[in-house]
Amino acid sequence: MQMIGKASVAYDKVIYLQGAASVVGQKESEGPLGKYFDEICPDERVGGTSWEEAESNLQIKAVGKVLEKTGVKGDDVRYMLGGDLLGQCMATSFGIADYQLPFLGLYGACSTCGEGLLVGSMLVAGGMAERVLSVTSSHFSSAEKEFRFPLEYGNQRPLSATWTVTGSGAFIMTSQKGQDTGVKITGGTIGKITDYGIKDSMNMGACMAPAAADTIARHLCDFNRRPDDYDKIITGDLGYVGQEVLLKLLDDKGFDLHGVHTDCGILIYDRETQDTHSGGSGCGCAAVTLAAYIVRQIASGEWKRVLFLPTGALLSKTSFNEGKSVPAICHGVVLERA
User: Fold this and answer.
1) Residues 10, 154 within the same domain
2) 19 and 151 both lie in a single domain
3) Which SS3 state, helix, strand or coil, does residue 301 take?
4) Structural domain containing residue 242
5) What is the pTM of this model?
6) How many domains would you assign to the chain?
7) Phi, psi of 15 (to 5 degrees)
8) Is the dihedral of CA 287, 289, 292, 297 positive or negative?
């Protein structure tokens, strides 16, 4: 049985992460992880004529880079999975159309990277594909335009706000041993929609922390593990505010994550020198941090087992303008040294 608990899977075959690639903007390259990214795009429009086209171009570059790094040809990929933050996942639809591969569009807001890894690894584990490619992206300017204010408005950002990462991450999963990254996916936990009634769209960390706490607690129970069974438990983009809320919620549940927890939104920017307030966010935040840094740490043996937990705020312009609260979700993926 590969199903365990109420919402988790533990694979009975090895699912390798064959390749991972990251493409980011200039601001991300100036942060603590700058030296790890595969490609840096100083041009904010990435050669396009709009912010949305820029995000599509980020995905084109990320997919091309992961295929180049692995030596995999497009025809060797059975299915492509992808998504982004924009309406109807338009950055993905326009970005990867030319590859002409069987495609499944995903939307989990900023948790889309985790959703793609789970769905892709399940397809491989179930014998329905030998190789699956997953990609996601975000762009600071397209996200501000979609969810907050046009950049020309020059609005004041509160200290609880996070900075949407300009970047794209792409991953290839396979059951075939060979030129892999030295990392395998051994299981995961699918998250539930969690809503604590928070309506502040400028405080995504507080909105998403309850979803992360729920998934982490259910994951540990399903796998009968403790936090110290992992070298690191890494959430997607809670930032500093969300991390504080998460640790308190898990303390109340009897799980102490102090010392083992960190967050991609905290890792990607320098709090002292970069004006990003609570940290980073966006689909690209968890994706590029995983592709550039976390995979490297596992492959080198620095970390043996990591629980990777991208988080997503499931709001839209319509729901926000109608006064709805911000529900959230978090998916967990277990990554281990192959």
Assistant:
1) yes
2) yes
3) coil
4) 183-337
5) 0.95
6) 2
7) -110, 110
8) negative
